[in-house]
Every structure is written in C-alpha cells, then in structure tokens.
Design brief:
- It is built from no helices and 13 strands.
- It is mainly beta and about 120 residues long.
- The chain has a single domain (about 10-115), classed as Jelly Rolls, CATH 2.60.120.
- The strands form four sheets. It has a six-stranded antiparallel β-sheet with strand order 1-3-4-12-7-10, with no helix packed on it.
C-alpha cells in the first residue's frame, strides 16, 4: 500500500485544445508507476473556464471537490457542487467547467485506455 498526499502533488498547467475560457490546472493522481488500469487527476478550472463538448471511449466519473460548476450533455445541464458524483457513460457527448462566478475543481477518473474526441 502507498499513501499519497494531495497537498504534496504539484499543480501543473493543463493546456489542451479541449479547454476554453480561462486557466486549467491538474494534479495527477494516477500515473503508470502507481497503476495501469485508471487515469485520474484533480482538475482545477478558473472562473468561466471549461471544456468544449467531447466524448470518451470509456466511462468517466467526476467527483466534485470544490466550487460550483456546470456539467451537461445533450439532454440536460446541472449546477454541480462539492460532494456531487457524476457518471458519464462512454460515447456520450458532454462538457464541464466552472461557472462565471466560481472557481471549480473535480476529481476525474477514466480507464487508462480512454481516448477523448472533441
């Protein structure tokens, strides 16, 4: 068993074309050295930052850690708050990010084999 402290995992810029509207940083939780089945990170969005609509080839779990965000798909959109757990099935187009009035962080878990398309 290994114990990692989130406060000791550095935040790094997470600049990818999938993000828009502000600054996004991440803290990697799962690396190939830790485990090969999942990818995981805490993703931090500044006010108004978010993703463009996208899909994953694996299921995705978002655990809301802080702030207030918007999570939506083609059928609905919700205001997500700390403690909410959101499941997005593989292949469902969705988006997520901070509201204009709040920074927002979530824990993201995907299969290590996931491919993201946007």
């Amino acid at each position: 068993m290994e114990v990692y402290k989130l406060s000791e995992i550095p935040k790094e810029p997470f600049n990818r074309p999938i993000f828009q509207g502000g600054t996004v940083q991440r803290q990697l939780l799962m690396t190939p050295e830790i485990g090969s089945s999942f990818n995981g990170a805490v993703v931090h969005f500044s006010k108004g930052a978010g993703t463009v609509p996208h899909t994953h080839t694996s299921d995705q779990i978002l655990i809301i850690a802080s702030g207030e965000g918007i999570v939506g798909d083609n059928d609905s959109e919700i205001v997500a708050k700390p403690g909410d757990i959101i499941f997005s099935p593989a292949g469902v187009k969705h988006w997520h990010g901070a509201t204009n009035g709040s920074d927002f962080s979530h824990i993201m878990i995907l299969a290590s084999t996931n491919k993201t398309e946007y």
